[in-house]
Amino acid sequence: GPEETPYFGGVFHCKLVLGADYPTQPPKGISISANSCLLQNSFSAVFATKIFHPNVNSDGMICVSALKKDWQPTQGLRHTLAVIRCLLIQPNPESALNEEAGRMLLEDYDEYASRARLFTKIYAAPKPANDGSKVATAVILEPGLQKKQKRSIKRL
After folding, report:
1. Where is average pLDDT lowest: 82-86, 104-108, 129-133, 150-154?
2. Which CATH superfamily is domain 14-142 in?
3. Which residues contact 16 (CB under 8 A, 6 or more apart)?
4. 148 or 84, higher pLDDT
5. What is the rounded CA–CA span in Å between residue 120 and residue 114?
6. Catalytic residues, which ones?
7. Summary mean pLDDT of the chain
8. Is the dihedral of CA 148, 137, 36, 64 positive or negative?
9. Alpha-helical segments (H) within 21-146
10. Beta bridge partners of 111
């Protein structure tokens, strides 16, 4: 997470689906639960890491206008990730998906920050470097995406 936020030091994983209509249309979120894997057309990204944030619901769904109604085909994955990072720096409690977090942010920032830090510590703590774990990034491509597009995405 970004410095000077309650998310600092946390490692947050997001899931994005790049459809055949990408980049004309923004990435879609994918929600993975114990029982199902569901493509979410109404959400542009999903936190796979549990997070306490006004603009992220309990399933990890993120809804940000820059990744939905304000999407431009010239924007790429770097822009998408930058928007998500900015959301960690400056949450928008007026359009909260998590009403409790939005209310706390507006009424009692210290309580909000404390809860967000606790979630970060519990769910987003980085793994020790010597445990053999590797950080992996996956981009899910829907059928029909052209091979040329696949190659350019892998180079990011």
Report:
1. 150-154
2. Ubiquitin Conjugating Enzyme (3.10.110.10)
3. 27, 28, 29, 30, 44, 45, 46, 77, 80, 139, 140
4. 84
5. 10
6. 63
7. 78
8. negative
9. 77-89, 99-107, 109-123
10. none
